[in-house]
Design goal:
Blueprint (H helix, E strand, L loop, with lengths): L5 E5 L4 H12 L3 E8 L18 H14 L2 E6 L1 H17 L6 H20 L4 E3 L4 E6 L2 E6 L16 H4 L2 E2 L7 H10 L3 H4 L15 H8 L1 H7 L2 E5 L4 E5 L22 E6 L4 E5 L5 E12 L9 E6 L7 E8 L2 E11 L6 E6 L2 E8 L7
Parallel strand pairs: 1-2, 1-4, 2-3, 4-7, 8-11
Antiparallel strand pairs: 5-6, 8-9, 10-11, 12-15, 12-17, 13-14, 13-16, 14-15, 16-17
Helix pairs in contact: 1-2, 1-6, 3-4, 8-9
């Protein structure tokens, strides 16, 4: 019997989740490792093997660590859940003229749900992952905050976690820098993990070609979208495109036209298969509307609140005032923000703490 109890650790085979398992094992927890298979790279049709959490090598790396340290390891096949919830949403969002972030949905609706379900089955009190974030209890609520290594911080993708899930979650690597995690792996006799490269592609698009992926999913739909209009902010027709889902807000390259000055995608109008182009200034906005918000540090948003709001993963954040307007959050930035893309997440921070977050809307919902 361990002195701390049982913990289910999500192990992708990478250095962060592996050191998570290592740390908890050394602290006296009874560790049960689990690797989630969410996608079969052979189904992607690209011919390129996956280099992330779904390939056989990563699964074997996770299993090898478990064997060497003497704790149980298992594989969970989540492909049936992953397909409709994550890939279905991914394609649906692009077809709606929005730019999705599948990692947010996967973390909230696939990984945590699956982990907690298996944790209950295996009598594990806690679950743990290798995310660079921290969680604590304060004033009766559980709060996620940025990891110590702000260059690797992953709190942005965790805004959707609910209180009952956060209460059972631990992020052991969140209190360390990435370099320190690699050093731990090296010192503990796992040099191959310490020097393992990272993968930044979406797991089900290993060649990083999301346009090709969308087209393979529904070729007939894109045949109908050919010869759409590229227009300027003044409405003047500038050229044609092969389908609005191939574009994202803020995109500059691959527009298919030559102009005398740099042009950017400023708006996508799926109803008319139109992509609007403009100068860099046309990307600047001071208001965003956010749907399906989830609040963590507060139980609900009462009145106005001052936050720093991030509109994309690598965004540094901009001071903003947030307030509820019906079922949406209105975000009034204190200065202009470029490239606010519907479908991406807006995450509200108070210092390093996540207040909450939601999905950016194209426009406010009419009452």
């Amino acid at each position: 019997m361990s002195k701390h109890g049982r913990v289910l650790v999500a192990m992708s085979g990478g250095v962060d989740s592996s050191v998570t398992a290592l740390m908890l094992h050394e602290q006296g927890y009874e560790v049960v490792g689990v690797t989630m298979k969410t996608w079969d790279y052979a189904a992607g049709g690209t011919g390129k093997r996956v280099t992330g959490c779904c390939d056989l090598d990563s699964i074997n790396d996770a299993r090898e660590m478990a064997v060497r340290l003497g704790f149980h390891h298992m594989i969970i096949d989540l492909r049936e859940e992953f397909g409709p919830k994550i890939i279905g949403n991914f394609t649906g969002e692009y077809m709606a003229g929005r730019t999705p972030n599948p990692c947010v949905l996967c973390n909230t609706f696939i990984k945590w749900e699956a982990l907690l379900k298996r944790a209950d089955m295996l009598d594990c009190e806690l679950i743990a992952t290798g995310h660079y974030a921290k969680v604590r209890e304060e004033n009766g609520r559980f709060v996620i905050s940025k990891g110590v290594d702000h260059t690797k911080d992953q709190s942005y993708v965790l805004w959707g976690l609910e209180q009952q899930n956060m209460a059972r979650t631990r992020f052991p690597v969140g209190g360390f820098k990435k370099s320190e995690i690699r050093e731990m792996a090296e010192r503990s006799g796992f040099p191959e993990l310490a020097h393992k490269s990272e993968s930044y592609e979406i797991c089900f698009i290993p060649d990083n070609d999301y346009r090709g992926f969308l087209k393979r999913k529904d070729p007939s739909a894109f045949e109908k979208l050919a010869h759409g209009k590229l227009v300027g902010t003044d409405g003047a027709v500038l050229g044609e495109h092969d389908g609005y889902p191939f574009f994202t807000i803020g995109q500059r390259k691959g527009l298919g036209i030559a102009t005398g000055s740099p042009m950017y995608v400023t708006e996508i109008i799926p109803e008319t298969n139109t992509v609007v182009l403009g100068g860099k200034d046309a990307l600047d906005k001071q208001t965003a509307w956010v749907r399906t918000p989830n609040f963590q540090k507060v139980d609900a948003l009462h009145g106005e609140m001052e936050t720093v709001t991030k509109v994309r993963y690598k965004d540094k954040g901009t001071p903003a005032t947030i307030a509820m307007h019906g079922e949406q959050v209105r975000v009034d930035f204190h200065s202009k923000v470029a490239g606010i893309a519907p479908g991406q997440s807006a995450v509200f921070y108070e210092g390093d703490d996540v207040v909450g977050g939601g999905f950016i809307d194209r426009e406010p919902v009419k009452p």
